[in-house]
# Entry
Amino acid sequence: MWDYPRPPAVEAVPERVVVRLGGAVVVDTTDAVRVLETSHPPVYYVPMTGVDLRPAAGSSMCEFKGRARYFDVVGGNGVVAPRAAWNYPTPEPGYEDLRHRIAIYPSAMDSCEVGGEVVEAQEGDFYGGWITSRVVGPFKGAPGTLGW
# Structure
């Protein structure tokens, strides 16, 4: 991932992506994309349709993708993961594929899978990267790494 581009690139994901919360599947798709950015594990974006989302407070700004809005994710048994997803409703040029998709913090879910492999959450919960066996660190996000 140190050879990932800057500015970030968006690419289609050929594998099935499954996300579970509250013992229920909240996402099951073969229509995901991932954002690849230098020093970051990939961030996966899945279609918003069919996901029980509630608007959450706050926003953030990415110099490349634009302004993000946040959502609580509702899973099985009414389990709510606060501010566990975000999207770019009016993304900057080059990131239009993110408009109707959300990224989900894997640390806030029961599990997230890519191609049947359970992912590990990027440390620090700021960037929301999904770490699989195909991604090699070190990764930004841990204490002392934000200035890399």
